[in-house]
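dude i think i finally got it to work??
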Amino acid sequence: MEALALLVDTLSVGVGPAKVQLTGNEHTGQTCGIVQDAHNAPVRFIVYIDGAGPYVEGGHGGQYLSRDAFDFAWQNDCINEGYTG
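look at this
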């Protein structure tokens, strides 16, 4: 819950429409989503149920993740686990 509160503070969620979805399987779980930042630009994020993150596209958020690592996590942990946005 603390990670989601940090995400809200970081992105000023509520500026535009959000596409947030819980994804996972019997071994993993995460909240994946796309929100709009204060400049109306779409920004992807991932928060894992084990408390890791939030990881926010572009290096924002509670923990830093390189662009390549974020794209890999987004593909494997969000898209491949059922995120439809």
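Confidence is low (pLDDT under 50) at residues 3-15.
im so relieved honestly
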